[in-house]
Every structure is written in structure tokens, then in C-alpha cells.
Amino acid sequence: MKKAVKPILFLLLLLGLAALLFLRFQQMGGEAPDAPGAEPAPQLTVPPASPAPSDIPTAAATAAPTSTPEPTIEPTPEPTPTADPNSPAGRAAALGLPAPPDVDVTSWELVLVNAAHPIDRNYEPEIAFVTASQCPQDVRISEALEAFAGDCAAAGLPVFCGSGYRSYTTQYMNYQAKAAEYGAAVAATIVAPPGTSEHQTGLCCDITDWLRAPMVPAELSQTQTFHWLNEHCAEYGFILRYPEDKQEITGIIYEPWHFRYVGVEAAAYIKENNLCLEEFLALYGVD
User: Fold this and answer.
1) Global pTM value
2) How far does CA 162 lie from the centroid of its chain?
3) Which fold does the domain 88-282 belong to in CATH?
4) DSSP alpha helices (H): ranges in the chain?
């Protein structure tokens, strides 16, 4: 009996030992423990997978090399043409004035009459009697003067066209009367000596609010009629011929009644640049 028990116990011992080994194997992830002294199993290196076609950079995705820009060559600026200093534009530029209009200074409306530029004593223009006051004028300015005075009246202001054309003889009589009162030198600044008066051209007119005798500059320059005439005169081709600040140039006292026809283009330039007729014509070489 004892001999039969021993084999059974030995078998149970082997089964228990096998069970322990199985449990140990399970705890180690199913790998068999390395035998003592055994070399480690070689590790297999798996090459990385080739990138999918969509992951391969394309020529379009690859940045093209930046090219060096060509330098920009600036064009050489054309030099500003300089006006001939002896031309109207050149003379005006020297005075800081804009280029004057292209006018014919030998034309009738720009004739200069003063002490340095006398008029022939026998000169007499073709006369027309204009405005309600029947003022005698050169027929060539009659339409412009009618419009000038007429629009002043239409603005609700009194207007009177007094002295227009005067003959050499009439001017002589006026001058002599002033010379007897003030002396020849002073008289010449009030009434131009005969042969040097614009009135003989028929291109000017003494325009006031009503008939004034005598005409006092300080009084007349304060009237609404004068302000309207002075503001709008260039629109009709007229200028204030003897401004207050130009007496040294014109040689005539301030006359806020004396309006002279020179044409619309010349009048606009003269007024905009605060010139008198002598200064304007000097731009064209008229001494």
C-alpha cells in the first residue's frame, strides 16, 4: 500500500509544479523565461512605411527660389523751361506774377495815354451817346458801358455816367481852370494836361451815383454804387484806372469814379493782380 502512495504523491508534485510554471508564464505575457546563459533574441528592425503619395512634396508645394528684382530706373525729370526774361511771362515771373494773357498791346483798347505817351491833339474817335445821361463814348465800348451801368442800376443802385469823351480843346479849358486855382504842378495831378488825357480816347467814363460837383474821392469811395462798380468792372472789360495805391505810377490822384475799358481778358488780370494799366503794359515791354 505504501508503495502505491509514493507514485501518486510524486505525480501530484509534478502537477503542482507544472501549474506554478504555467501561472508564471501567464504573468510574463506569455513569453517563456530566458534560459540561464542564453543570448537575447535578436530584435527585428521594421523599416518605416513609405509615405503615401499625398504626403510626398510636389513641385507646386516646394517654394520657388526668390529672384532678385531688377532695379527700377527712374526717368530723368525734364528741366522746367525758363521763360525768356524779356518776354511778358518772364517779366511777370520776375515780379512773382502769373503769366499774363496773350493780348495785342497795340490794339485800340490798350492804348496808353499819359504824360509819357501823349495823344495827337487832333485825334477824335467815332462817338456814340450811351446810357440815360447820353454820355459821349468811343462807339466800340458803347455796348459794354451800357451793360456795365445798366446792371448796376438793375442791382437797385443809382448810377450816373458823367464825363466820357473830351476833345483836346475841352481838356485844355479844364486844365487851365485847375491851374489857375492850384498852380500848374498840382493841377496836372487833378486834371491831365491837354494831349495826355484818356478822356480824349473816348475809352473811359466818370461814373458816380449821381451828378457830383465837385467829386470828392473820400466821399465817393464810400458809396454802394462805387463798391458795386469796383467789384464787377472787370466782368465788362473795365478797370479802375487811377487806384489809390498807384498814384506814384499813374501821376494822377485817386479817382474812384474813372473807369477805363481795356477788354475783359486784360481787365481780369489787372484786377486779380492789383495792377494799374502802366504796370500791366510794362509786362509787354511798353515803357
Assistant:
1) 0.72
2) 41
3) Muramoyl-pentapeptide Carboxypeptidase; domain 2 (3.30.1380)
4) 2-27, 88-94, 142-154, 168-182, 184-190, 217-220, 224-232, 247-250, 264-272, 277-282
Sign of CA dihedral 233, 239, 240, 243: positive
The set of catalytic residues is 255
Q: Tell me what pLDDT residue 74 has.
A: 76
Distance of CA 149 to the CA centre of its chain: 34
Q: Do 217 and 224 contact (CB within 8 A), yes or no?
A: no
In this prediction, residue 35 carries a pLDDT of 44
CA–CA dist 115, 119 (Å, integer) = 9
> Cell numbers at residue 174, please?
479844364
**Cell numbers standing for residue 97:** 506774377
Asked whether the CA dihedral 94, 99, 104, 105 is positive or negative, the reply is negative
Kindly list the averaged pLDDT for each block of 10 residues, start to end, along the chain of length 287.
59 69 62 47 49 50 63 74 90 97 98 97 96 93 97 97 96 95 93 96 97 92 98 98 97 97 98 98 96
Kindly give, in sequence order, each residue whose CB lies less than 8 Å from that of residue 23, ignoring residues fewer than 6 positions away. Answer: none
